Please model this.
Amino acid sequence: MSALMPTYAPSDLAFEKGEGVYLYTADGRRFLDFCAGIAVSCLGYNHPHMVKALKDQADKVWHVSNLYRSPGQERLAQRFVEASFADRVFFCNSGAEALEAALKIARKYQRDNGHPERFRVIGCENAFHGRTLATIAAAGQAKLLEGFAPVIDAFDQVAHGNLNEMRAAITDKTAAILVEPVQGEGGLRPAPEGYLQGLREIADEFGLLLMFDEVQCGMGRTGKLFAHEWAGVIPDVVSTAKGLGGGFPLGACLTTEAAGVLGVGNHGTTYGGNPLGMAVGNAVFDILTQDGFFEHVTQMGKVLDAALHSLVEKYPTVFDETRGLGLMRGIKLKDAIVNRDFKAGLEAEGLLVAPAGDNVIRLLPPLIIQDAHIAEALSIFETVAQSYV
Ligand SMILES: *Cc1c(COP(=O)(O)O)cnc(C)c1O
Model:
């Protein structure tokens, strides 16, 4: 531990293996995982289809670079095109890189369309887009920017959900709008009714690209491949990652034909979309797009939502409210209780969750959970809640 840069303050738990929705420590303790590596392990652990895909590919070739054709990328890109708004896909290794590609696309799109003066991107307060210099500036949160001045001066933020503020923030330098359809780190805030449609109208009116950060809320997390589908809106650019590789580091930036402005020499990645990653990505995609899979996510999301509402009702001095979409849920604690302490309490009882902004506990279980897992999580929540009343 001591040689590590202390960028995290991890709990003392170290896991040795996982099976389904459970993780196990070396000394055999079992934990119900409603964190899923922060919405990454969407099919849980040791999923036979994923393990087989990875092992089979491991025996063939791991990496060749993008100097050679990649059948795995071509296949997964085509599957995305068939299943979404997209016409073009760029593969990378993480969420931040998927956003970086989107931000470069915003500038080049405007340049190619005769507006080199348009380079600014308007996003939302409490957003999270990654930890690179550009993505911390895009999110604009003080806690992310502290220590890293000067901030890249190309981003503006307005209140999430407020169309008037968005409209008022547009200038002749604005290139794009960048929004998480469901804010994750910021505290599990789904877009209010009509918000994404309103953003589409504004983007069209001013000639801006509408870009969604679906790194966390995409890949089936909300019960559709992408969360923006619930609003029936067609974006220009979507960045995704987390669940895409189910635990293998993968990201993707998807665009329409018109926004597919990156050509030879404009952008690149050494590892992005390598054969090992694409074998796993295609395997994850196989499962997500199976008949009934998203319906299952939606159904489990409803059950989890009902369970969390029952907690808020039963322990009004502990919980403030619950919000979210699909299997991306948050429960906000009363101010007197710190979410990280409550999370530690859950952990001691065998339940893993993630903290989020606004004193929220974030529940991001593997999408394969069943009713019994939700019941088990609920009972652990009750045990810990009782210790606070
Ligand atoms: C996690 C996340 C990112 C950053 O992804 P990394 O893989 O950590 O770079 C960006 N946007 C959102 C919405 C995220 O949840």
Notes: The two ends are 36 Å apart (CA to CA). The CA atoms of residues 341 and 355 lie 10 Å apart. The longest strand covers residues 319-325.
